[in-house]
Every structure is written in C-alpha cells, then in structure tokens.
C-alpha cells in the first residue's frame, strides 16, 4: 500500500522567489516564511546563500535570516538554506543556521550554467562544504537537478542520475532531493528512477522528490513516488517557482495541490490547507499576479 504519512518540504520562499522578476521586500519574505510555518509546514526552506550577482532576488539572505531569528529564535536556525560552496556555508554558519542544502547537476550543461563548474568539478566544490557542515553536526540535503530531462541535453539516463546522487551521499549528504527541474518527468520514469536508486543500495527514506508542473504531471508523479515508497515531497506554496538558469522551468508543484491530493488519499501531512491558500493568495497580491495553482483558484477568495 501507499505510505500513511508524508513530509512536505516547502520550497516557496527559496525556489519560488529566486525566480521572481519583481523584487520582494525582505519583510514580505519573512512574513511568507512565518505564515507557512503557522500553516503547519514542518520544513520551510527559507533562502539561498548563493552569489548575489547570480541570484539577486535572494541577495538579502543574511538580512532575512537575521530578522527571522529575532522573531523566531532557534526555530529560524532550523530552517534549511541553500549553500553552493564553502563561502555560502560560512555565511550560513555565521548566522547559526543548522540545516543546509547543496545542489548538484545530473548533466554537464546545467552544471556549467547553474554552478559555473563541470559535472566532475562540482564535487570538488561540494566535498569540503559537506564535510565541514557534517563535522559541525549540521544536516545536509543534496539536490540533484535535471534528473529526468535537460533543456540542452534531452532525456537524462537514469544511471547518470544515480551516479551523481550516490556521490553526494558518499560525501555525507543525508537526504537526496531528486529534481525534475524543467517538469518533464512522467510516472513511469519516476518509478524507474526510484527503483534504480533502491537497486543501487539507496533506501527510499534517503530520497525526496522535487517536481515542477510544466506538463501538469507533478501530482501523477507524486503518486508514482508514493507507490515506490518515497515519503518526502518538495512543493511551493501557490506553485511559485522556476530556476533562473533553466529558462524552460515553470513553477513547482503547488503545496496546495499536494495537500489536497494527500488528504484525498487519507495520507497524513499535518498542513492546514486553508492557511496555505490564504498565504498564497496574499503572496499573489504582493507579486501582482494570480497563483497558477488550480486548488488556490478553486479555494482562494481574492
Ligand atoms: P563562481 O563565479 O564560479 O564563484 O560562481 P567562485 O568560486 O569562482 O568565486 C567568485 C567570487 O564569488 C569570489 O569573490 C567569491 O568569494 C564569491 P571575489 O574573491 O572574486 O571577490 N562567491 C560568493 N559570494 C557570496 N556567496 C557565495 C559565493 N561563492 C562565491 N556563496 C557559484 C559559483 C556556485 C557561487 C555560482 O555559480 C552561484 O552562486 N550559483 C547559484 C545558482 C543558483 O542559485 N541557482 C538556483 C538554485 S538551483 C535550483 O533552483 C534547482 C533546485 O530547485 C532543484 C531542481 O528544481 O532541480 C534546487
Ligand atoms: Mg526547483
């Protein structure tokens, strides 16, 4: 049968806002994070300590985390943040952050575009970053991008993704998040990829799935992941998101769509749907455009 309980890993403030054309004021970001926590989301990825020239939308990462720490104390330090390298880790550690995520590419082209590294040399950047974080007792997540298809290279072989994922695990990463960065995954491909990881000795509790909804397949893909026993799913409130270095990436799976779907299956998630919808509707007002989520449109008021 399907798992009885799922963890929703909220990425709206990071994956959602990194791609927004309008610059979102820091206090609005802080309110967004806090509202998501209040809605019962157990994990809210708050921002990225990447190069501010590469992702200017998140250049206020330190200011945001300082403000959130003033409001939330230790709860803010538990929020995961992206760090591409040791410089990013230093910035996160300075603020007392305890959960970080590195992000790798499964393809050569995207490694170059997103990280300014080759597929091989990205690991030289991650190795000391992950080692230092683990040595300090931090929890490290490892994203793998372009796990299904890549806009420049086409379909990505399952074995290539498993090889990248296993190298991250060998470096000391706790959980892998397998990203369908451009939203081209289909259910059969999801099952094949998860099965390949399991066959390579990686249990499903080390895996999370990260879908973008370009072809409207994200929930079907979650269902495929559930059938394979994966219990952590990334989602973004209101379906915000994309990737600034992958032009064809559209929004993430909307948190609301995922919550509605899991509730329908009787799977425990702990999230208050109305509170997330209210948050996304408010955020849509801040951004000046409606949410692409069907559930937000069905349940939202303004
Ligand atoms: P680089 O230019 O190769 O960096 O960028 P470098 O190591 O050569 O350093 C150059 C300068 O940048 C140095 O300064 C560094 O200190 C500085 P200088 O000595 O010249 O004055 N620098 C930094 N400053 C602040 N924070 C840092 C940092 N690192 C170096 N962390 C780098 C390499 C990785 C930094 C750059 O390519 C980068 O920031 N990339 C981030 C791209 C990004 O954020 N993409 C979106 C996230 S991934 C995603 O969305 C996919 C995901 O959602 C899953 C999915 O959907 O698949 C996760
Ligand atoms: Mg993403």
TrEMBL record:
One Pfam family named in its UniProt record: HMGL-like
The record's PROSITE patterns line, in alphabetical order, gives:
PYR_CT
Residues of the Pyruvate carboxyltransferase domain: 6-277
Q: Annotated Gene Ontology MF terms?
A: lyase activity
Signal peptide segment: none
Q: Which UniProt keywords apply?
A: Lyase, Metal-binding
Record flagged with keyword Transmembrane helix: no
Gene3D superfamilies xrefs: Aldolase class I (3.20.20.70)
Question: Which family does the record assign?
Answer: Belongs to the HMG-CoA lyase family.
PANTHER family recorded:
HYDROXYMETHYLGLUTARYL-COA LYASE
Name this protein carries in UniProt: Hydroxymethylglutaryl-CoA lyase
Organism listed in the record: Nocardioides aromaticivorans
Q: What lineage does UniProt assign to this protein's organism?
A: Bacteria, Bacillati, Actinomycetota, Actinomycetes, Propionibacteriales
